[in-house]
């Protein structure tokens, strides 16, 4: 499913999971949104969650995680597979103003909020691999 097709409340919950809210992460898992729980965990640094995405039919979300990290290969994969929103979203997460402007123009404000959360997380994250889990 395209990220744009999720209900707003689910995207808000996804944002809370990105922030590290374990209760909301569990809600996503138990309510049919395991892919968003895995993406939130992958964004927070879980290799296991990234592998889950790739193994369970969500390569576009795995590629999004890698593109957020700046992987050119992931950007190309997303573009080749016509995932334009995910390419723009990855750039917005990397604090690219043109991407945030594009999201604003398309009235996709929730994605701007998510991008700010992800950018803040990635810039302030101290990696403790003992705490990463999914």
Structural description of this entry:
By secondary structure, this protein is mostly helical. The model is unreliable at 128-134 (pLDDT under 50). It has one domain. The protein contains nine helices and no strands.
* H and E string: HHHHHHHHH
- Range of helix content: 55-70%
Average pLDDT over all residues: 92
How would you sum up the major sheet? none
Q: What Rg do the Cα atoms give?
A: 14 Å
Structural class: mainly alpha
Number of helices: 9
Rough outline: globular
Number of strands: 0
Total individual domains: 1
Search tags:
mainly alpha; 134 residues; disordered C terminus; 0% strand
Question: What's this, in brief?
Answer:
The chain has 134 residues and is mostly helical. The chain is 69% helix and 0% strand. It has nine helices and no strands.
Write the layout of secondary structure elements.
Blueprint lengths: L7 H11 L3 H9 L3 H10 L3 H9 L3 H10 L3 H9 L3 H10 L3 H9 L3 H16 L10
Helix pairs in contact: 1-2, 1-3, 1-9, 2-3, 3-4, 3-5, 4-5, 5-6, 5-7, 7-8, 7-9
